[in-house]
């Protein structure tokens, strides 16, 4: 494995280099992890926001949205999912940070690959058919068996849950609205990758189109990989694949924007740029 470099260019110089690299790029691949959505206001570890959204669960001693293994009864767990996903996935308002990122990319030929399941790229100006989300999408549900490769839009289910959700108790007051697989009656779950039962069929076509786009890069083309917010929770989804992509693409460059883990592989030399900060300050400097 390649060693990493901990040497970071000064912030003003690094932003200037990023501006130059963007100007020289023929194609841009935006690669994003959870840190980007956290910078945009959707931090799963934000205890205060958790308390505001889910006071009943806060009183039980829970402090963050990372509840996959929490021993909650079904009515409370579905109350959590409905509130959480309605907030992060189905909110109608625009997001300033994502919109400024879209403005930064401009009219360059581009794609997005993200481990985030909140659809914030597609909801803020990026073409939905050019966003690859290999970890899934909160906008869909699936059977947990699964008895079928079919998935279903989540919003109608969550709208019904929220209509009978009691915020003070954290419970869904009508068990009839708790989702079940319409085919076999088994439990359903958000269509996100948590185990081998994950149904990835909705996302494979975009993955194939992205692979074809990358394969069609001319030898003399400049590909800029702009990676932001991708740490080590799931490094095999974004972080390591982006390093390997740049490593095997001679004229490609990697820009890694990350306040906690900005290190870049030393073997990439001057084709990798480390910005040890969040996406917000970078966009503040580049997009008025």
UniProtKB/TrEMBL annotation:
<keyword id="KW-0520">NAD</keyword>
<feature type="domain" description="Deacetylase sirtuin-type">
    <location>
        <begin position="8"/>
        <end position="288"/>
    </location>
</feature>
<keyword id="KW-0479">Metal-binding</keyword>
<keyword id="KW-0808">Transferase</keyword>
<feature type="binding site">
    <location>
        <position position="184"/>
    </location>
    <ligand>
        <name>Zn(2+)</name>
    </ligand>
</feature>
<protein>
    <submittedName>
        <fullName>NAD-dependent protein deacetylase of SIR2 family</fullName>
    </submittedName>
</protein>
<keyword id="KW-0862">Zinc</keyword>
<dbReference type="InterPro" id="IPR029035">
    <property type="entry name" value="DHS-like_NAD/FAD-binding_dom"/>
</dbReference>
<feature type="binding site">
    <location>
        <position position="143"/>
    </location>
    <ligand>
        <name>Zn(2+)</name>
    </ligand>
</feature>
<dbReference type="InterPro" id="IPR026590">
    <property type="entry name" value="Ssirtuin_cat_dom"/>
</dbReference>
<feature type="binding site">
    <location>
        <position position="147"/>
    </location>
    <ligand>
        <name>Zn(2+)</name>
    </ligand>
</feature>
<feature type="binding site">
    <location>
        <position position="181"/>
    </location>
    <ligand>
        <name>Zn(2+)</name>
    </ligand>
</feature>
<dbReference type="InterPro" id="IPR026591">
    <property type="entry name" value="Sirtuin_cat_small_dom_sf"/>
</dbReference>
């Amino acid at each position: 494995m390649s060693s990493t470099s901990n040497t970071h260019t000064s912030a003003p110089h690094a932003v200037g280099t990023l501006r130059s690299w963007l100007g020289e790029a023929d194609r841009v691949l935006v690669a994003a992890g959870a840190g980007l959505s956290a910078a945009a206001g959707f931090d799963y570890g934000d205890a205060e926001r958790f308390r505001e959204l889910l006071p009943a669960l806060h009183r039980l001693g829970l402090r963050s949205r990372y509840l996959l293994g929490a021993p909650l009864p079904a009515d409370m767990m579905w109350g959590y999912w409905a509130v959480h996903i309605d907030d992060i996935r189905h909110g109608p308002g625009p997001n300033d940070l994502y919109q400024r990122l879209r403005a930064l990319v401009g009219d360059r030929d581009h794609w997005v690959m993200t481990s985030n399941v909140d659809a914030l790229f597609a909801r803020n100006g990026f073409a939905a058919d050019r966003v690859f989300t290999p970890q899934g999408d909160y906008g869909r549900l699936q059977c947990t068996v699964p008895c079928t490769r079919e998935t279903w839009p989540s919003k109608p289910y969550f709208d019904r849950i929220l209509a009978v959700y009691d915020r003070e108790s954290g419970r869904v007051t009508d068990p009839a609205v708790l989702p079940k697989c319409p085919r076999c009656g088994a439990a359903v779950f958000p269509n996100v990758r948590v185990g081998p039962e994950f149904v990835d069929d909705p996302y494979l076509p975009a993955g194939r189109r992205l692979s074809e786009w990358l394969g069609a890069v001319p030898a003399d083309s400049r590909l800029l990989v702009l990676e932001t917010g991708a740490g080590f929770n799931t490094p095999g989804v974004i972080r390591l694949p982006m390093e390997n992509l740049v490593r095997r693409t001679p004229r490609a460059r990697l820009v890694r924007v990350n306040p906690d883990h900005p290190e870049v592989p030393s073997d990439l030399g001057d084709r990798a740029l480390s910005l040890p900060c969040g996406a917000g300050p970078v966009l503040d400097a580049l997009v008025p």
